[in-house]
Design brief:
Layout (H helix, E strand, L loop, with lengths): L4 E4 L1 H8 L3 H8 L3 H9 L7 H11 L3 H4 E4 L1 H8 L1
Antiparallel strand pairs: 1-2
């Protein structure tokens, strides 16, 4: 059974805030790999501490950063 997925909208938020990955790394105390994986949406497990630091650095809520995508929408995108 497919449950859907969680989309990380870090790239969109960073563009809105005109923030570079380097600056995000510095402000959120992330290493480059953490920031890059979040930016590309290629993480599979979420670390609450990392998400909180990103939200603080971007002055946003978790709902601004993460979006639930139901399985029906994933199927529509693949077709």
């Amino acid at each position: 059974m497919e449950y859907g997925t969680i989309k990380i909208k870090l790239d969109e938020l960073m563009a809105e805030k005109d923030m570079s990955k380097r600056r995000l790394c510095r402000m959120a105390e992330l290493n480059w790999e953490q920031a890059n994986n979040c930016y590309k949406g290629s993480i599979t497990r979420f670390d609450a501490d990392v998400l909180a630091r990103i939200c603080k650095a971007l002055d946003c809520n978790i709902s601004d950063l993460l979006e639930y995508v139901p399985p029906e929408e994933i199927k529509d995108e693949k077709q």
